[in-house]
Specification:
It contains 11 helices and 41 strands. It is α/β, with parallel strands linked by helices. It folds into 2 domains: 220 residues, Spore Coat Polysaccharide Biosynthesis Protein SpsA, Chain A (Alpha-Beta Complex), CATH 3.90.550.10; 208 residues, Hexapeptide repeat proteins (UDP N-Acetylglucosamine Acyltransferase, domain 1).
Length: 459
C-alpha cells in the first residue's frame, strides 16, 4: 500500500508568529492543505502528518481527518520521518512519499508520474527534482550513468557543481521497507547534530540500491517560505496563476489591484471582476456577471447576469439577474431569487428573498421567508431573536412594508398586505389587510425649556 508522510513540525522563527510554518496561508488555505490536496489528487488516501511546534493547532485544523504523530524534539528531517515508522509498518509494504508541509506547490501530476518512474525502475529511492533559474541555497543533484549519484549541499558544492540548476525539492519516494531500514542507520555525525533524510541516498547507494531522480516540469514545486517576504512571494505566484487561468477562460479584469481568487473558485465567461474583490472557497460565479469593486464572496453560488457592488456574501445562493449593493451583507443560509434588487446598507441572514422583491436600503431581514415582488421600506427590521430563541417571519407575495416597520417574529403577513410606516407587527396580518400601530401621540409643551434651562441660560 502506498502512503505519504508530510513533515509539518517546523516553527518558522523568521515568520515571527506562534503558529507552525505549514499553517501559514497561501490564497486563504494553509500550505499544509495544499500538500494534502496534492496527495489526495494523486490517489493517496493514507497520510500521516508529523507535527511538532504548536502541535495542537494542526490537530485542531485536521479535525481527525488524517493520522498525526508528534516529533517532540526537532532533530532534523530524518528524525521527523522516524516518528512515522509505526504508521508505515501498520500500512504494510509498498512505497512511502515524504513531502514538506511548507512547500505548497507540489502537484498531483508530479506525485503520480514520479511514482510511475519509481516503480518502473525498481528504485529504492526516487528524489523529485526541478530545474530552477537560481539554485542558490538548494542541494544540487549530481547524476551518474545509472541515475542519481549524490546530492551536494550549497556549502559543500564546488564551483562547477554550483552551476548545476537541477535541485532537490525535498520530496522523495521510498520503498517503505528500505526507508524503515535506512532510518535505523542514520546518524547525527554532522555540524548540526541532526538526522538528515538526505543521508538515506548515500546509505542506499552504498548498499548498491538504485536511486533515481524524477525531474518535474513544475519548477515552482520546490518553493517554500522562510519568512514573510517568501510567503508574500508564494501568494503572488499562486494568485497570478489563478487569474491567468480565468483570463484564458474568458473572464475580464480591468485592473488586478486587490483581486484575490481562491484556486477552487469557478467563474463563467464574460464575467467582469473589479478591483478589491476576494472570491473564496467553493464559490461558483456564472456568466456575464459584474463582481466588485470591493466584494467578498465566500462559498456562494452566483448565477448569470448578477451585479454585486461592495457586497460581502457567505454560504448563500444568488439567482440570475440579481442586483445587490452597495454595502450589503449576505449571511449564511440565504437564497436571493431572480430579479431581486437589494440596495445600500442592507443585511440578509438565513432568509429566502422571493423573485422581483426590492429591499432598497437600511433594512435587516433575518430568519425570514419572503415572497415575490415584496417592497421593503427604509428601516424595516425583522426582529427574529428574543434573547432565548430565534423565530422566523413569513411575508407573502406583493406585500408593501412601510418605512420603519418592525416585524416581531414569529409573525406572518398575508399576500398583498400593507404595513403603515412606523408600525410594530406582533400578530399575523391577513391577506389584503393594512396594519397600523402608531399609538397615541402626546405633546408636552415647554419640555426642552425646562430640561435644558441651565444650558440655555449660558447660550
Amino acid at each position: 500500500m502506498n502512503n505519504a508522510v508530510i513533515l509539518a513540525g517546523g516553527q518558522g522563527k523568521r515568520m515571527k508568529s506562534d503558529i507552525p510554518k505549514p499553517m501559514f496561508k497561501v490564497l486563504g488555505e494553509p500550505m499544509l492543505e495544499w500538500v494534502i490536496k496534492a496527495c489526495e489528487g494523486a490517489g493517496l488516501s493514507s497520510l500521516c502528518i508529523v507535527k511538532g511546534f504548536k502541535a495542537e493547532i494542526i490537530d485542531e485544523y485536521l479535525g481527525g481527518r488524517y493520522e498525526t504523530v508528534l516529533q517532540e524534539e526537532r532533530l532534523g528531517t530524518g528524525h521527523a520521518v522516524m516518528q512515522a515508522v509505526p504508521f508505515m509498518e501498520k500500512n504494510g509494504g509498498g512505497n512511502t512519499l515524504v513531502l514538506c508541509g511548507d512547500a505548497p506547490f507540489i502537484d498531483s501530476e508530479t506525485i503520480k508520474r514520479s511514482l510511475e518512474m519509481h516503480e518502473q525502475e525498481g528504485n529504492s529511492i526516487t528524489v523529485i527534482t526541478a530545474d530552477v533559474d537560481d539554485p542558490t541555497g538548494y542541494g544540487r543533484i549530481i547524476r551518474g550513468e545509472k541515475g542519481i549519484s549524490s546530492i551536494v549541499e550549497e556549502k559543500d558544492a564546488t564551483e562547477a557543481q554550483k552551476e548545476i540548476c537541477e535541485i532537490n525539492s525535498g520530496a522523495y519516494w521510498f520503498k517503505t521497507a528500505d526507508l524503515i531500514e535506512t532510518l535505523g542507520e542514520l546518524t547525527r555525525n554532522n555540524s548540526q547534530g541532526e538526522y538528515y533524510l538526505t543521508d538515506s541516498v548515500f546509505i542506499a547507494l552504498g548498499k548498491g540500491r538504485s536511486v533515481g531522480a524524477y525531474k518535474t516540469e513544475n519548477s515552482i514545486a520546490v518553493l517554500g517560505a522562510n519568512d514573510r517576504m517568501g510567503l508574500l512571494e508564494l501568494n503572488t505566484i499562486a494568485r497570478m496563476a489563478v487569474i491567468e487561468k480565468h483570463l484564458e477562460n474568458g473572464v475580464e479584469f480591468v485592473c488586478l489591484d486587490g483581486i484575490i481568487i481562491g484556486r477552487d473558485v469557478e467563474i463563467g465567461a464574460g464575467t467582469q471582476i473589479l478591483p478589491g474583490t476576494d472570491l473564496r472557497g467553493k464559490t461558483v460565479i456564472g456568466k456575464d456577471c459584474r463582481i466588485g469593486p470591493n466584494c467578498i464572496i465566500d462559498d456562494c453560488t452566483v448565477e448569470d447576469n448578477v451585479s454585486l457592488n461592495y457586497v460581502q456574501a457567505f454560504k448563500s445562493k444568488v439567482d440570475a439577474g440579481v442586483k445587490i449593493g452597495p454595502f450589503v451583507h449576505i449571511r449564511p443560509g440565504s437564497h436571493i431569487k431572480s430579479g431581486v434588487k437589494i440596495g445600500d446598507f442592507v443585511e440578509i441572514k438565513n432568509s429566502t428573498i422571493g423573485e422581483g422583491t426590492a429591499v432598497a436600503h437600511l433594512t435587516y431581514v433575518g430568519d425570514s421567508d419572503v415572497g415575490k415582488k415584496v417592497n421593503f421600506g427604509c428601516g424595516t427590521v425583522t426582529v427574529n431573536y428574543d434573547g432565548i430563541v430565534k423565530s422566523r417571519c413569513e411575508i407573502g407575495d406583493h406585500c408593501f412594508i412601510g418605512c420603519n416597520t418592525n416585524l416581531i417574529a414569529p409573525v406572518k403577513l398575508g399576500k398583498w398586505a400593507y404595513t403603515a410606516a412606523g408600525t410594530t407587527i406582533t400578530k399575523d396580518v391577513p391577506d389584503y389587510a393594512l396594519a397600523i400601530d402608531r399609538g397615541t401621540v402626546q405633546i408636552k409643551e415647554g419640555y426642552s425649556l425646562r430640561k435644558l434651562k441651565t444650558k440655555l441660560e449660558k447660550a
